[in-house]
Amino acid sequence: MDSMERATIRDVAKKAGVSITTVSKALNDYTDVNPETRKRIQEIARQMNYVPNVAGRSMGGRVDKVIGLLINDLRPMDPSGSVYGILSGVCHACQDNNIEFILMTTDGKQQTQRPLKMLCLRKQLTGLIFAGFRLNDPYLHQLDEIDIPCACIDIRTEKADVLDVTMDNERAAHEAVSFLVKNGRRNIALVNGGLDADVSILRGSGYRWALEEAGLPVRAERMVSANFDTQMAYEKTKQLLAQDHQVDALFCASDLMALGACQAIEEKGLTVGKEIAVIGFDDIPVARYLYGGLTTVRQDFYLMGYMAGKAIYQRIEGKEDVQVDNMMYELVIRGSARGKL
Amino acid sequence: MDSMERATIRDVAKKAGVSITTVSKALNDYTDVNPETRKRIQEIARQMNYVPNVAGRSMGGRVDKVIGLLINDLRPMDPSGSVYGILSGVCHACQDNNIEFILMTTDGKQQTQRPLKMLCLRKQLTGLIFAGFRLNDPYLHQLDEIDIPCACIDIRTEKADVLDVTMDNERAAHEAVSFLVKNGRRNIALVNGGLDADVSILRGSGYRWALEEAGLPVRAERMVSANFDTQMAYEKTKQLLAQDHQVDALFCASDLMALGACQAIEEKGLTVGKEIAVIGFDDIPVARYLYGGLTTVRQDFYLMGYMAGKAIYQRIEGKEDVQVDNMMYELVIRGSARGKL
DNA sequence: TTGAAAGCGCTAACAC
DNA sequence: GTGTTAGCGCTTTCAA
């Protein structure tokens, strides 16, 4: 019974004493089938453990709709949980809307070798969501070659047909830095991510905006880049603090970098939140347990994924005009940056 | 050009002036094709952006091999990163071995509604990896109904044909608790996960083993269960410490629970690592930044996923006898449990 | 070295 | 309400 060959629609038809057409109709909720026949067929199909062959059904002309999530550069670890959040969000959106979901990955090399269009054709995609892409990634420039609804998470393509699922990183950074200013901090340094990431550019720009607004100088030496890496942030911050004894606050473009920065601060015998205030970005789940509570800009990756999935689904269903609002963010104030100077 | 209908093998054949048979052969590396013909056809196919239709090819009899990762109960967040690690590990193993990978999810309800076998048939799986399952999950008892290679991560099925990808949780817990004993701790409590998780049972048993070995009493009041949840661990620990003033150490079955426990400890005015030593489990990426460094049992989820994927691949390729060694673990000693009492 | 033809499992016109 | 039939795109005998 176990290793029995897979039952086909023909097997079901034979057992039920009807044509395969009738079986097809019965199982696909067509109306022109006698309710009793349908019931009988369904019962038999269940008994036989019949599952329609997707390939056959696809050949027959019934193409299942599929939303693909394409992740660039999938790493072994995802310490901030951003990729996971997006993934589970898209996945749940697809479940809720009863549309198939598939996960795909790519990397820089593959992007130069296989055109994006081929990827879409091979997987028979109906909709596509991009995550983890950088500004200079090849696929980002092939978006007009594919004629299915697309969404990009955390990057501004600003193409008419593409759904940009982003939050206002510039404004968020501005709010964070302004908060530091309001608390009396005057020498605020920036620990940014790599400038190939769109969010880094925006957060850097929000940082400068806040300083300028407050009439504070924007000094190049106070802006370092640590590629979203904890260890590198530690080293860069260490250098920074060695060279510049005035620094009384740090705005970091991610919580993970804030971690490295805090380590450098404490190693120097200073206390995070006192001599030097620190604000991170993301609000990773453990942020509240770090350095007396890490002040940070919370964003919701799960929701980003979910909204992207939902919007793509709607576009697939013909609602050409759906857009995704800017994602929310929230400055979460904790011990690392509560204190006034 | 963009929205042109997808090219079929027939289109390529026509353009090349050969039969579709020849195109098929040329593109599938058959030897009975004139090298020049092959080259010409390949070139034309590329130009036309031709991608074989998977459904058609599957109907034709060429079934692509696919390894599925089935995740039970996919949550919006994965704070420990375990699910992500497994996922990326399996994914990379598949890439390295050039076999297709698909992600699937399920939950308790679906498990009671759709037989596992149907899932496999529908996705045409060649191999299957389970993650996130609990001892009483229905699918775990349907493993013999499917006739493809299977692996289970972090749960002992102990079925002959199933690859159990686990580490020796009992021994690891024993080692952790023994370390506490060696450092003079005599009143060690346990903050465990839910007992529907296999790993909880094993870690609990390792805890008792170590106590017994040291001639220390095993007291039921000192064993609480917090379902791998930080908040619940906080509450349970708070209760525990209120009732039992002797406790001088805590062994927690996850870092996340250790976090909650530490919070309860510090709230009581005690210092983690001094009055009360704490050991967690997992070694999440931020563990070294928590409470002066969280002592913990490191495990490598990425590697688990990778090994599971690789082993399943090998079984698919006919190596019936491949097994997966016990996964490694390592007691990582940091501030939260370094000090002798 | 090439091609004609059969068939994989299914759906959808259309006829009954 | 049910069945007949013609494909969908591809692979694979087998004959040329």
Keywords:
homodimer, 341 residues, 434 Repressor (Amino-terminal Domain), Rossmann fold, six-stranded mixed beta sheet, five-stranded parallel beta sheet, 11 strands, elongated, DNA-binding
Descriptive overview:
- By secondary structure, chain A is α/β, with parallel strands linked by helices.
- Among the domains of chain A are: 1-50, lambda repressor-like DNA-binding domains (434 Repressor (Amino-terminal Domain), Orthogonal Bundle); 169-299 and 330-337, Rossmann fold (3-Layer(aba) Sandwich).
- The first copy, chain A, has helices spanning 9-16, 20-27, 35-47, 54-59, 82-96, 108-113, 116-123, 169-182, 198-213, 230-243, 255-267, 301-316, and strands at residues 66-72, 100-106, 127-131, 150-153, 162-165, 188-192, 223-225, 249-252, 277-282, 295-298, 330-332.
- In chain A, helix 9 (198-213) links the parallel strand 6 and strand 7 (223-225).
- In chain A, helix 1 (9-16) crosses helix 2, helix 5 (82-96) runs parallel beside helix 12 (301-316) and helix 8 (169-182) packs parallel to helix 9.
- The first copy, chain A, is elongated, with a radius of gyration of 26 Å.
- The first copy, chain A, starts with 8 loop residues before the first helix and ends in a 9-residue tail after the last strand.
- At the A-B interface, helix 4, helix 5, strand 2, helix 7 and helix 11 of A face helix 4, helix 5, strand 2, helix 7 and helix 11 of B.
- The structure holds a DNA duplex (16 and 16 nucleotides).
